[in-house]
Design brief:
The chain has 33 helices and 15 strands. By secondary structure, the protein is of the alpha/beta class.
């Protein structure tokens, strides 16, 4: 029985966070965030100018006639009104509007009290005192004047009513004197008495209105000169900042522990991953060789690889000598084939597998290293040539024995990747089993680095199924627990024993554990960056590369990116995807999207003699008018919006090396690392929607674009004509593409109009001899050139940098995965 790690489904799949551990690990971060927020709050408070507040109060009297208490809500509104502010302006002789004067005023009402508190805040303490008192006095004056006006109005109404009653009384008296009958005389007398009574009532009302002119209220507290500033409240703001910073730091720490928990320490490998730790491989400085064993260097890295071999030998993986390290079980037989599986897409599985193979060979075993990733990890073993490899053996184009290559290390042979993209062959378990079984017959030990697409280890399944045991590879501080558990869960049904884990210790993980050495590492790294040449292609200053990073992240979100893009390309040409869009052709930059657009428009609009008639499924029928194509902005957001709208879409894609090297020549302020990350994120964003697209690989687009259009017609039931890749048509595409960088703005509108489908091909060709501006440049970046290919060769050394190996693996894996999934949709 081979050594195996204890497995527990509940443990493997458990993702319950350890909040206390999360807080403990991030204690310094929490304190730093708290201190930073507190300092910012105190600093902002200190920067604010001092302001002074003075208070004045008035007490209101109950209504004299009814004894009711005043409505304090109404009185507060009156005190804050522009009418009272106008009186303040008049009394203080200010040159301001009521709104400006009221800016520093605050009126409040104490609970269950007929009191108004006037507070005024100003940068001058004397001004605050004057204005607070002025508002209190102005309010009393306004309310007194209002009462006077009300009493005067009541008196005026009473006088009018009394005059009317007196006139009526005189008329009744005259009629009484001339009355001839006793009954009429008595009636006039009664009426006269009633009028006398009404006049008396009105006179009493007028007297009551005049008598109610008492005081509305009085000063309760006069405004005083402030002894000190009331704002800013530095202590209070500091305490609030401390509380907010502590809350923010704690929340971030808990979120990190809950959802982003990573394998941080050696104990985490045993406790969280539930497998033995064979070794921790220290990260080397930039510029160091990837293959420490081959280089013969004496270092911690080389010693760690030797330690891996010692533990494997002592555990009985290759032989039994009676000594077994902690965590290993007894072994009943040796493992002939070992699959090296990355726990996440960032793990350097190819580098570790190559070094382990070299170390095992140097221990006296016959070792065969099989390359499956296509990442050329055997470049230190073998020279670059056209010799056959694994892909050729699996296709039956070469014998296994003939494909094996010797290496400078005795006992170590290598099987290179072979010709073409062999990733599809790795999905065929039978072919993989046959190839690995044959390899095991030719060596004592076979080391196979399994590919990883970062999606639950799907691409590693066939390799692991053909191996005898599994060696997992990760990185301290980088390997995500949830992702690692998904990879293991996908491979555990195969029942292969787990030898253990080899973890790479990255620089940031070492800094967390060794604070004293971290400062030296950080300073030396800073010095290397300072001494390195800046502004070179693929390695720009970080501040220049930021623009590309921000743009690429924003371009993944349609709701954010498309409104910005529509402001830049409002239409009608160029124009991003919209209601009148008929077709979208887009992809990562430098992937032949421009060629595809020109070839498509030419195919639809050329005269009938250039095309043979085909069935509608193959793209034919009548000649098409210009097709409204969205401007290719190289943004996933546009492709996601096209998928949402159900618009026929072609996504062009190019293998990472060609696309990124070409991009860096076009955009020198983009770093190689950022370009690799952006490439992988671009197509990973589209993968969940792959059934909504037709893919066009760069080589196919530039040599047989008609096949892509035929798949488009089949997938979306369209009838577009196919492009015939004759020398004449291809030359026409390239010649028209050279017109894009013209200095003649009117001519540029015509060229872009042809791309978008607003200008027919005939009009473009007719106006071509009449254009103004510079002639098209031969070295234009939209068309191939010898100079650019030579420039790419100069960039390949940086492309093959060892520290970029994990990013290259992820980019290649995403490239293969996207092509595979879109091919499934096209077949369906």
């Amino acid at each position: 029985m081979l050594p195996t790690a204890p497995t527990d489904a509940a443990d493997v799949n458990s993702s319950s966070p350890n909040f206390v551990a999360g807080l403990r690990q991030n204690a310094w971060s929490i304190l730093l965030v708290t201190a930073l927020v507190t300092l910012v709050a105190v600093g902002v408070s200190k920067l604010q100018p001092p302001r002074y507040t003075s208070d004045a109060s008035v007490v209101l009297q109950d209504s004299g006639d009814t004894g009711t208490s005043p409505n304090m809500a109404t009185e507060k509104q009156i005190a804050s009104s522009s009418a009272v502010a106008a009186l303040v302006i008049q009394s203080l002789h200010l040159h301001a509007t009521p709104q400006e004067v009221s800016w520093g005023l605050s009126v409040s009402v104490p609970v269950d009290a007929s009191v108004l508190d006037f507070s005024y805040t100003s940068g001058d303490p004397k001004d605050a005192q004057r204005r607070a008192q002025a508002f209190a006095d102005a309010y009393l004056s306004y309310r007194h004047d209002a009462l006077v006006r009300a009493a005067q109005s009541a008196n005026d109404l009473a006088d009018i009513r009394i005059t009317e009653l007196e006139n009526e009384l005189r008329a009744v008296t005259q009629k009484q004197q001339t009355a001839k009958t006793h009954s009429k005389l008595e009636a006039y007398r009664v009426r006269a008495n009633a009028l006398f009574a009404q006049i008396g009532v009105e006179e009493q009302r007028a007297a009551a209105a005049t008598g109610s002119l008492g005081t509305v209220g009085d000063r309760l507290v006069a405004a005083t000169l402030p002894m000190g500033p009331s704002q800013p409240k530095v202590v209070l703001n500091g305490l609030l900042g401390m509380f907010f910073g502590l809350s923010l730091g704690t929340f971030v720490a808990l979120w990190h522990a809950s959802f982003k928990r990573r394998v941080q320490t050696e104990e985490d490998v045993r406790d969280m991953l539930k497998m033995p730790l064979l070794a921790v491989i220290p990260e080397r400085g930039r510029g160091s060789r990837s293959f420490s064993i081959l280089s013969g260097e004496i270092s911690h890295t080389a010693g760690a690889y030797r330690g891996v071999v010692v533990k494997l030998l002592s555990s009985g993986v290759f032989s039994t000598n009676g000594h077994r390290p902690e965590g290993f079980q007894a072994s009943a037989g040796p493992a002939r084939t070992i699959a090296v599986v990355p726990l996440d897409a960032k793990a350097a599985a190819t580098e570790i597998a190559a070094n382990v193979a070299a170390a095992v060979a140097m221990s006296g075993r016959s070792v065969l290293h099989v390359s499956t990733t296509g990442m050329e990890e055997t470049v230190e073993f073998l020279p670059r040539d056209e010799a056959p490899g694994l892909a050729d053996v699996m296709r039956g184009h070469a014998d296994l024995a003939d494909a094996l290559r010797p290496t400078p290390i005795d006992g170590l042979r290598a099987l290179p990747p072979g010709h073409g993209d062999g990733s599809w062959l790795l999905l065929d378990a039978r072919r993989v089993q046959a190839a690995i079984t044959g390899a095991a017959a030719l060596a004592d030990v076979v080391i196979i680095p399994a590919p990883s697409s970062g999606r639950d280890g799907v691409e590693a399944t066939a390799v692991v199924a053909a191996a005898d045991a599994v060696l997992y590879v990760g990185a301290l501080g980088s390997t995500n627990l949830a992702e690692a558990n998904r990879v293991r869960a996908g491979l555990e049904p195969l029942g292969k024993p787990t030898l253990g884990a080899v973890m790479l210790e990255r620089a940031h993980s070492a800094r967390r554990q060794h604070h004293r050495t971290s400062g030296t590492r950080r300073r030396s790294a800073s010095k290397r960056r300072h001494d390195a040449p800046r502004g070179t292609v693929g390695n720009p200053p970080r501040w220049k590369a930021t623009r590309h990073v921000v743009r690429s992240r924003i371009s993944e979100h349609p709701r954010v990116y498309l409104p910005l893009a529509r402001r830049r390309y409002p239409g009608p040409s160029p124009k991003v995807v919209s209601d009148d869009t008929e077709l979208v052709i887009d992809g990562y930059t430098r992937s032949a999207s421009t060629f595809a657009v020109y070839a498509f428009q030419i195919a639809q609009q050329q005269s009938q003699q250039h095309h043979s008639r085909r069935t509608s499924a193959n793209g034919t029928g009548r000649t098409h008018p210009p097709v409204r194509i969205a401007h290719h902005v190289h943004a996933p957001a546009q492709l996601l919006e096209a998928a949402r709208r159900g618009i026929p879409t072609i996504v062009v894609i190019r293998e990472p090396e060609g696309a990124i090297l070409s991009q860096l020549l076009q955009e020198p302020n983009v770093s190689m690392r950022d370009a690799l990350v952006s490439y992988e994120r671009f197509y990973s964003t589209l993968i969940p929607h792959s059934l909504c697209f037709v893919s066009g690989e760069f080589r196919e687009v530039t040599t047989d674009f008609g096949a892509v259009i035929r798949r488009l017609n089949k997938r979306f039931h369209t009838h577009y004509r196919t492009f015939d890749p004759t020398q004449e048509n291809t030359r026409l595409c390239l010649d028209l593409m050279k017109e894009r960088p013209t200095t003649d703005q009117e001519w540029r509108k015509v060229v872009l109009g042809f791309e978008s489908g607003t200008v027919p091909l005939g009009e473009l060709l007719a106006r071509l001899p009449k254009r103004n501006g510079d002639a098209p440049a031969v070295t234009d970046t939209w068309v191939p050139s010898t100079d650019r290919e030579q420039a790419k060769d100069a960039l390949r050394e940086r492309w093959n940098a060892p520290e970029l190996s994990p990013l290259r693996e992820r980019a290649h894996a995403t490239y293969r995965e996207f092509l595979r999934l879109t091919a499934v949709g096209e077949d369906g």
